[in-house]
Structure formats: structure tokens, C-alpha cells
Write a structure and sequence with these properties.
Helix content is about 55%, strand content about 10%. It is of the alpha/beta class. Among the domains are: about 90 residues, 2-Layer Sandwich (Gyrase A, domain 2); about 110 residues, no CATH class; about 180 residues, Orthogonal Bundle (Isoleucyl-tRNA Synthetase, Domain 1), CATH 1.10.730. The chain has a five-stranded parallel beta sheet with strand order 7-6-5-11-12, sandwiched between helices. α5 links the parallel β5 and β6. α6 crosses α8, α6 crosses α10 and α18 crosses α21. The chain is globular, with a radius of gyration of 29 Å. The chain starts with a helix and ends in a 10-residue tail after the last helix. It binds one RNA strand through α2, α15, α16, β14 and α18.
Length: about 600
RNA sequence: GGUUCGGUAGCUCAGCUGGAUAGAGCGUCAUCCUUCUAAGAUGAGGGUCAUUGGUUCGAAUCCAAUCCGAAUCACCA
């Protein structure tokens, strides 16, 4: 059991024994003691002072004495400063925690593993992936990994938005301007090729609107009447009617996009157990609308459209079926939730989707609950903020996007230059070098996007390249490589006897012991940044330790064995923490 | 206008279930490689925690109001 948990439970137990008052262990506040005070952990007494009718001084002394008796061999002493009860932990306890720790046993124990679906990535097939997609992909992959490390079974899925007016825009622009060209002809990645026609569509559209306005039409009307816009709408209609030529073109262009996406996904490490295509799912949910009508969850208006009234829940009315009988977005999602539940039978389903859809997911969960679908209560929206440029939002149409492939490549190039200038891997083969550049470049990028709270929007300045120093992926990768380098020299066979721990040795032991709790917290809050912060602090602490104390030339053999073990545990913890972020750590860099 | 989320150092962000003197990184300045990887370490400087009021032993943290910013409130997906 975790020491902090133990302290909380023991405190609650002692207070019950001493005063007959029942407390929940969670009500006990345990902090790491501030460095300027004597002790390792602090219990804040103020909370109980009033309830127990004792002065902090008296309560502290009585509780402190009882705690020492309750946790012999662990607690050695206590002192009271104002309302803070500071406990000192025995040297032996921390020494044993190092001695008994095993590399293969660093993760939390999970007595109730769950089966959880993580749906992420969700690209549109009319344009290539950009920086915002990268945040989504890294978050999705990371949260899936964190849940796995916590002991759960995870199913990663992807829903591809492969139909709709936006695809038709790329298609019609291709018909008009491409002269039958293909990505092979232009030697372009397929998703970029198709994306270029999406941009061309918008250029042509703007020109046509301007022309119509110049000839005397109002802006509003011109936007509706632009020929290319009408062409795209006709194409959508034809697609829905199953027109062979249209479907053919649609399949062809999508296949180019998928080829491009595959390359990118492979590069950045995204993978899925199952990919759903909206062209297959967009008609889902129809029977559920019928069921909902029968259950009186939904109601029909005079024009035969079907609605749900959520005003009682503080939301608005929402349409779930158009008067022409077709589904809307939310209906598809309800249907898909049902389909996924039947297919995988998961306990929970996490949707990694931008915060612009917060309202949508609130409504989705609520409707599913009202329909009493099995999937309903397990729906979680991992909502993340947009990635913005210093100049504001990214817009594909206006070309103000940071392209995912370009950025990844740039990061890899920077790591290559940096690595070459340091010249520490001269014996690497070219394959090994390329792998290292990928590891470091992607590590920097992933860490950069995962180190901040997902729900906050973040600013990315393309003028300043992503850092490789400080609170970054490469810093942690470097620390890992550094430890491995040391261990190659000292060996890893250890035999621990006993010795007094120095402050930095103890600090490392304490930090290492927190790892399982960090993974649990990250899993519960769906927040990989907790892991990023932890791995950074651990790496920083180790570097201080390294600068201060020699491992290979320790002052005694006992110390050397101890420090080698600390190094082994730190490297393994860093490796697992970074893995939780989807980042590999090199043996040498 | 309603709802939701945000505002902490020059910049990017932690801290937010109330606890001791508000923390990191970058940038700036200074110091440390004949000794285990300097992508590192050590130190200095930098703050009306948006504003005002409240709750209390104690507020960056909770509550209210105000100001600023964003998202959303589509028979688009």
C-alpha cells in the first residue's frame, strides 16, 4: 500500500481510537513537508481542531504519539508547527522501498479492470492532417496507453468522416481543374493532393462570388448561386442517389487520401483496432428514433420532424429526424454508439473530440440515457482545446494551417542537426540514426502537445521551433540515455545491504514511489499532462542527484549498489512514463 | 442574450477536493566539463494570482458581481 494512503487510514484510525470520532481517510490531508521544516509528511490539523474541540498543540501531541505507536518502524518522530503535524519516516522504510522495488512491478495494481473504447483521430477525407489532428491523435493514443498501464483492456477505434459536402468540393474541383491528374503523376502524398483541390475549390468559389457581386448580385445571393457551389451540391445529391460515376470518383479520391493517412499514422504511431466509415454509419439510428417515439422520449411536430425536449435538463430542444425522414448528425452518433456497444461490449467509451463539440456530447449522452441504451452511462467526452496560432485560429481554407507531415519532418530534421552537432552516436548505423532522429523529433513534438492540460486551448508559434531543452521530451529522453550510459559501465547486478540515505537519495525514492498514483490519477482525469509533469520532475531530480553524487565512484560499496538500483528504477520509470505518452526513450543519444 | 470554459512572471504553462514564504521551463545575467553523457547542474532577477466584495483561523484555490477572451446555442458533420 502507498504510504500516503496508509498515513490517511492510520490517522482516521487513531482519531477514532482517541476521540471516538469517525473520519473518512480521504478527509485527512497529507502533504509532503516543506523543506524548511523537519519531517517528510505533514498532516494538516486545522480541519479537525474545531470538530474535536482540542487545540492544535494538544491534538498534535496526542495524535502524533498514537501514530508512532500505530506505525512502528515507519514513523520515527513528529513535531508540531502551528496546526501542522510533521512526521519523519524511518530511513529503513525508504531503503526497503528501493530494495524491494522491481522494474517489472512499477505499475498500479488494478482489482477491477475494465474494457474501454477510445475513439480518436476522426479525420475528414478532403484534406491532410494538421497540428490540431496531431493533438487529437497524441491524446487518444496516450490516454489509451495510460488506461492499459492501469490494467484495463482498451479498444482503439476511429470514425472517418468520408462523405458530405466537403468531400464533394474536392471532387468537383478535381473534375474541373485536374485534367485527370493523380498523386502518382504529381508525386504528391494522396491526402495533400486531394487537399490542394479543396483549396482550389475555395479559390474558385471566392472568385465566382466576387464576379457575381460585381455584376450586381447581392453578396448573400451570390454565395448561393456560385456555379461551383451548386456543382458540389448536385454531386452530393448524386452520391446519395448512388450514381455510379460519382461513387467511383469518390472511392478513387478517398483511396488516395487513405494512402496518405496511412503513411502519416505509421509515422506518428497511431493505430486502430477498427475503423468506422461515416458512409456506412450515416443512416444509423433510425430504429432508435422509432423506439424513442414509442417510449415518448421523442415527439413529432406537425411537419413530421422528430424532436427531443431537453429544456428540463437546462438544454434546448434538439431535432433527431428531419421531416424528409433522414437522420441528422446526432442520430448517427446515437446509432453508432449502439453499434459499437453491441460489437465490443465495453464498460466505457471515450470520445477524443475538440471542445467545440462539448454541447453535442452532453446532448448525446443525455439522449442515450433517456433511451436507456446500455452504452449511455459509459460515454465520456475527452474534450480538448484548439491549437491556435499567435494570429488566431488555423483555417485550412485560407491556408493558415500547420501541416502535420511538414511539422513532423521539421522536428526530425532539427533532432538530426542537433544530434550531429553533439556527435555522441558516431558508431550508429544509418538505420539506427534515422530511428534515433524519429524518436527524438517525435518525442519533442508529442511531449509539447501533451504536457499541457488537454482541456485548455494552446498557442503554437511556428516562428519559434519547439524546444529541446527544459520541460521537453528530449530532456527526459536524454536523462534516460544518460542513465543507460552509466549503467553500461557499472553493470546492473545489485546486492543491497543497508545504509543511511542522503537527502537526494531519499527524495528519489519518494518520487519513484509516487508513479502508480500518478498513472491512476491521469487515467481517472483523462489527463496525460499529469504523467508528462511527473516524468519531467523525476528526470530533473535524477539530474540533480547525478550532478551531486557519483554512482560509479561512490564513497562505499553499499552506496554504489544503492545508487545503481536507484538509477535502474529511475530509467524504468521514465521509460514507462514516456510510453504512456507514446514516446520512446533511446538507450543512447 | 442563454449555457460552458478560460484570465497566475516578458513568453509558454503547473498549482485549483481551501493550508506554512505562489512554482517550473523558455528568455536574461552569472558560475560549473583533466572524474559516470553539459540535450545537464547551481545561483540571481522577474508576481496587485483580471477587478471588487464575501465566506473563515487561513483564499490563486470556494461563493457573488464586474471586466476581458473563446466555444456553443444549425434540419453542417
Amino acid at each position: 500500500m502507498n504510504l500516503i494512503t496508509n498515513l490517511k487510514q492510520s490517522t482516521a484510525g487513531c482519531i477514532h481510537q482517541l476521540y471516538g470520532v469517525q473520519l473518512q481517510p480521504e478527509q485527512v490531508l497529507v502533504n509532503a513537508t516543506k523543506p524548511e521544516f523537519e519531517g517528510d509528511y505533514t498532516i494538516v490539523l486545522f480541519a479537525f481542531v474545531k470538530q474535536l474541540g482540542k487545540s492544535p498543540e494538544v491534538l498534535g501531541n496526542e495524535l502524533g504519539a498514537a501514530m508512532l505507536a500505530k506505525m512502528p518502524g515507519i514513523l520515527t518522530d513528529f513535531n508540531i508547527v502551528k496546526g501542522f503535524l510533521n512526521f519523519s519516516i524511518s530511513n529503513q522504510f525508504w531503503f526497503d522501498s528501493i530494495k524491494n522495488a522491481k522494474v517489472e512491478n512499477l505499475l498500479p495494481t488494478n482489482t477491477h479492470p475494465r474494457k474501454i473504447m477510445v475513439e480518436y483521430s476522426s479525420p475528414n477525407t478532403n484534406k491532410p492532417l494538421h497540428l490540431g489532428h496531431l493533438r487529437n491523435n497524441f491524446l487518444g493514443w496516450s490516454i489509451a496507453e495510460i488506461l492499459k498501464l492501469q490494467g484495463n483492456e482498451v479498444v482503439k477505434t476511429c470514425i472517418v468522416n468520408d462523405r458530405g459536402i466537403h468531400i464533394c468540393k474536392s471532387m468537383i474541383a478535381w473534375q474541373l481543374f485536374a485534367n485527370g491528374a493523380t498523386p502518382t503523376d504529381t508525386q504528391q502524398k494522396g491526402d495533400h493532393f486531394v487537399g490542394d483541390y479543396y483549396v482550389k475549390y475555395n479559390d474558385a468559389y471566392k472568385a465566382q462570388v466576387a464576379e457575381l457581386v460585381a455584376s450586381g448580385m447581392t453578396q448573400e445571393l451570390a454565395e448561393k448561386e456560385a456555379p461551383i457551389q451548386k456543382g458540389a451540391q448536385e454531386m452530393l445529391l448524386k452520391w446519395e442517389q448512388g450514381d455510379a460515376a460519382t461513387i467511383d470518383l469518390w472511392k478513387r479520391m478517398n483511396s488516395w487520401v487513405y494512402e496518405g493517412f496511412d503513411t502519416t499514422y505509421k509515422k506518428i504511431g497511431s493505430d486502430f483496432v477498427k475503423t468506422y466509415y461515416e458512409s456506412n454509419t450515416y443512416l444509423l439510428g433510425k430504429e432508435l428514433v422509432e423506439q424513442g417515439l414509442q417510449k415518448n422520449v421523442f415527439y413529432q411536430k406537425e411537419d413530421t420532424s422528430v424532436w427531443i425536449d431537453l429544456t428540463g435538463d437546462g438544454l434546448d430542444e434538439k431535432i433527431v429526424r428531419r421531416k424528409d425522414g433522414t437522420s441528422v448528425y446526432i442520430t448517427q452518433d446515437i446509432g453508432l454508439a449502439e453499434v459499437k456497444q453491441k460489437e465490443f461490449n465495453t464498460d466505457a467509451s471515450i470520445y477524443v473530440v475538440g471542445d467545440e463539440q462539448n454541447y453535442h456530447f452532453k446532448v448525446l449522452k443525455l439522449i442515450c440515457q433517456k433511451l436507456q441504451l446500455p452504452a449511455a452511462d459509459g460515454i465520456y467526452h475527452l474534450s480538448y482545446g484548439m491549437v491556435e496560432l499567435p494570429t488566431g485560429k488555423m483555417k485550412s481554407r485560407e491556408g493558415t494551417v500547420v501541416d502535420a507531415d511538414d511539422l513532423v519532418e521539421e522536428m526530425i530534421n532539427i533532432s538530426k542537426e542537433k544530434t550531429e552537432s553533439l556527435g555522441k552516436v558516431s558508431e550508429f548505423t544509418s538505420d539506427q540514426l534515422n530511428e534515433l532522429y524519429n524518436t527524438i523529433g517525435l518525442g519533442a513534438l508529442k511531449f509539447f502537445l501533451l504536457r499541457v492540460d488537454p482541456k485548455k486551448k494552446m498557442i503554437f508559434n511556428p516562428e519559434e521551433s519547439i524546444d529541446f531543452h527544459g520541460f521537453t521530451g528530449p530532456f527526459i529522453q536524454y536523462t534516460h540515455a544518460r542513465i543507460k550510459s552509466i549503467l553500461r559501465k557499472t553493470g546492473t547486478a545489485v546486492e543491497l545491504t543497508t545504509c543511511e540515505l542522503l537527502p537526494l537519495e531519499k527524495a528519489l525514492a519518494i518520487e519513484l514511489s509516487n508513479f502508480p498514483a500518478v498513472i491512476n490519477e491521469a487515467a481517472e482525469t483523462l489527463d496525460p499532462s499529469k504523467v508528462a509533469i511527473y516524468t519531467f520532475n523525476l528526470a530533473k531530480l535524477f539530474n540533480s542527484f547525478y550532478a551531486e553524487l557519483s554512482i560509479a565512484n561512490s564513497e562505499s560499496e553499499e552506496k554504489k549498489q544503492l545508487r545503481i538500483k536507484l538509477a535502474i528504477l529511475t530509467a524504468a520509470t521514465l521509460q514507462k512514463g514516456m510510453r504512456a505518452l507514446g514516446i520512446n526513450v533511446p538507450e543512447q543519444m
